[in-house]
Amino acid sequence: MKQFLSILFFFLLFLSTVFLNIKVSALRSEIKKVINEIDILEKEKTYLENYIQSNLDLKKIEKKALEMGLVYPKNVVEFRIYNGRISEINKEKYYALSLEK
Length: 101
Known about the structure:
Layout: H1 2-54, H2 58-67, E1 75-82, E2 85-93, H3 97-100
Antiparallel strand pairs: 1-2
């Protein structure tokens, strides 16, 4: 009877080791897939950052905004609020460089 129990114990130990190895292998393959996806997303992020930087020209943005109907302000009024009260008002004439031409 002791011999049967020891054989059963070693068989269960062997079986559990096999199942653990299978689970570890599955997790390793899943980790590889996630790492590959991270690499792809990092490449896409780098591409998009470079695209944004290359298209970040203020003259292009200004031209596009004017085409869309945006206009420069004639006067700028600045309010400063401290503790819920208006403490300072600045009025100034504002003309953009493009309008002076």
